[in-house]
Amino acid sequence: MKIAIASTKGGVGKSTLSMHFAHALKLLHPEKRVLLMDADPQASCLNWSKWRAESEITPYIEVQPLFEKGLKTILAEKEKEYDYILIDVGGSDNPNLRRTLVYVDAVVIPTSLDPSERIHTFDMIDLIDDVLSEYNEHLKAYVVFNRIKATLERNYMDDFKEGFPAYLHWLDGFIMQRIKFSRVYGQGKTVFDLVDKEVDKKANEEILHIIAQLEENHGA
């Protein structure tokens, strides 16, 4: 299964979710082969992977770069080697994003409840509409609420969803904004790893719940 984590807006948490989704899949399916591909010019996932390897943190999570040139061929080859391929795509409307959507099975769009991110989610829908009609009619699109600042914000989720197409899957649950997400990045870790002698169980539950939703909805 090939899944892109994408948005036309930067700073929505794509790279953070990509790393955590990859780690979650490794924990849930240790017998499966998981690959995280970094298609973002900022190379956040590649840097994180380097730090993780240097610190010899387990489990090992394989991260490779993905460039626009030869993208179709590369993904076809990787699909033969790996059970799960996650792709972190740069936060803008760019050729790499558009080409990636043509060749993946699903796209996950992270968003907070900020009005500006709602606008960018609509921008993503415009891209997905084009891909569905012209190139990849089987593409499934999901939205995950990310970086939710307070429990009360949940009251606005239904309003946020208004006006979007029926084919869009809204993943049940959400991921709260936590300073620990930014802290673990520079250590090559995720919230599943031991940090300050503890594991953030609530953050773990939120990530695992989203992964379970994805697998259930996508028939993995």
Automatic annotation (TrEMBL):
Pfam families: CbiA. SUPFAM superfamilies: P-loop containing nucleoside triphosphate hydrolases. Gene3D superfamilies: P-loop containing nucleotide triphosphate hydrolases. InterPro entries: CobQ/CobB/MinD/ParA_Nub-bd_dom, DNA_Partitioning_ATPase, P-loop_NTPase. Residues 3-190 form the CobQ/CobB/MinD/ParA nucleotide binding domain. PANTHER family: COBQ_COBB_MIND_PARA NUCLEOTIDE BINDING DOMAIN-CONTAINING PROTEIN, P-LOOP CONTAINING NUCLEOSIDE TRIPHOSPHATE HYDROLASE. This is ParA family protein.
